Structures are given as C-alpha cells and as structure tokens.
Amino acid sequence: MSIFEKLMGGGHGRRHGGGHHERYDNGPPANQTETWGRAPQSAAVPTMTCIACGTANTATARFCQQCGTSLIPVQCEGCKADMLGGMKFCGKCGMERK
After folding, report:
1. Is this model's pTM higher than 0.70 or not?
2. In whole angstroms, how far apart are CA 18 and each of 12, 15, 27, 75?
3. DSSP state at residue 31
4. How far apart are CA 35 and CA 42, in angstroms?
C-alpha cells in the first residue's frame, strides 16, 4: 500500500470492517460510555460573592481570590449588624465603617 492510499483511508482490511485498525475508532472508552462528549458533572459547591469585585469564592474562603477583599463580616460599632469587607457604611444604621 502506498502512503497516498494510507492517507486516503484505503488499503487492507476495508472490506472486512477495518481489520486491526478497529481499535482506533475514536469512540468512547469502554468504561466511559455514559459521559462521553459531555462535561463531567460536579457537585454544587457553595459560594460567596465578593462585594467589591463580584467574584464567586468558596464559602470557606476568608479573602477574595481575585481582589483580596476580606469576606469575613465585621460588626457595625453602632448597631452590631454584620458588614462585609467592601462595605464603607452600615446598611442598617448608616454608620461609617472604621
């Protein structure tokens, strides 16, 4: 068989189903037929959105992975409401964060 025939897909075994080349069928591996061609499904991970830049971070993160803003709430000195890292004023009483 010439190189040209190989490149064009001709040659031995074509009339009998491809001969020993059947193992190169580019189909799914035998043990992965259910997920072939789809993105793997992952469990939903709880996230917390950074108030400063909007990046989704894991719920256990202490600082934003994008901008470094603290994700741990601080209590307002006036009314003791929780204030996230990027807040300059309390949303409940309006007191400025110190």
Report:
1. no
2. 8, 7, 15, 72
3. T
4. 12
